[in-house]
Here is the input.
Amino acid sequence: GDSVTQMEGPVTLSEEAFLTINCTYTATGYPSLFWYVQYPGEGLQLLLKATKADDKGSNKGFEATYRKETTSFHLEKGSVQVSDSAVYFCALSDTYNQGGKLIFGQGTELSVKP
Amino acid sequence: NAGVTQTPKFQVLKTGQSMTLQCAQDMNHEYMSWYRQDPGMGLRLIHYSVGAGITDQGEVPNGYNVSRSTTEDFPLRLLSAAPSQTSVYFCASSADRASNQPQHFGDGTRLSIL
Here is the structure.
């Protein structure tokens, strides 16, 4: 079945460091890919999305490119801030798998130190 | 704009008790779903609904019941609480079940079963 695998955390970075969180997926159809962010004590918020191969999603300095050839959707940010400390979830929604249902990775906790 | 509202935010139950977690959205969304979040496992789908009067099972439906009598409300019922149901529960909604639609999450209900 469909699945999402993220790099394990926690990830600890200093402010202004470069961030990469790896995400790979398996899917039988043509999935849409998402990154959600969860701040402490809150629900998940959509960070960015890409709906077809080679699309780049971007928001708040974060970006991720839908790579069909490597089945990847890695999250990157050039310069992280303390306020980016949160848990990040990669997810997919597959047209052929009851579209609307999200399949999540296990989440990666990011901690940014001043 | 309230978005997705979940009540209660916290709850402690004893084994065998029943309760209902409430979820309401004010965006006229057709698609609603319930997830549970457990450490190291991401979010897993419990039940979902593609519209009023229509519900279906997700990945981990056992021990839970749902109904969708209106577009706005999608309550989740625990029939006889068990310690394995200790988790954080999230309700989500989206405009429709198309795979490219982002989902909007509530802030969660933190449930402990003693």
About this structure: Chain A touches chain B through 26 residues (CB under 8 Å). Chain A is about 0% helix and 50% strand. The first strand of chain A starts at residue 3 and ends at 6. Residues 37 and 43 of chain A are 8 Å apart (CA to CA).
